[in-house]
Amino acid sequence: MSVIEKWVGVTCPDCGAPARARVLHIIAWGAIPGSAVPHHVSIVCEHLCRVTGIAARETVCLCPHCRAFMG
């Protein structure tokens, strides 16, 4: 398995402050070409809010690596 980590600037969905989102693009060796690639998203803002799961995926709609829709 291989993981590509990308950071993008976003707005915190909890407090509205500037934040950074960490997007993990996970590539499983032996996966069928064209199959869905799992992504994990977590957001941390300057007020130390932590957002993960569905709320984080809705904030970062596209993977910055593969441009796939994650919502």
Strand order of the largest sheet: 1-2-3-4
- Relative strand content: 35-45%
Morphology call: elongated
Mean pLDDT: 90
Instruction: Please count the helical segments.
Output: 1
Largest sheet: 4 strands, antiparallel
What does this structure look like?
The chain has one domain. The chain is 8% helix and 42% strand. It has one helix at residues 54-59; strands spanning 2-11, 18-27, 39-45, 50-52. A 4-stranded antiparallel β-sheet has the order 1-2-3-4. The mean pLDDT is 90.
Quick rundown:
The chain has 1 helix and 4 strands.
Detail the topology: elements first, then pairings.
Blueprint: E1 2-11, E2 18-27, E3 39-45, E4 50-52, H1 54-59
Antiparallel strand pairs: 1-2, 2-3, 3-4
Highlighted features:
71 residues; mainly beta
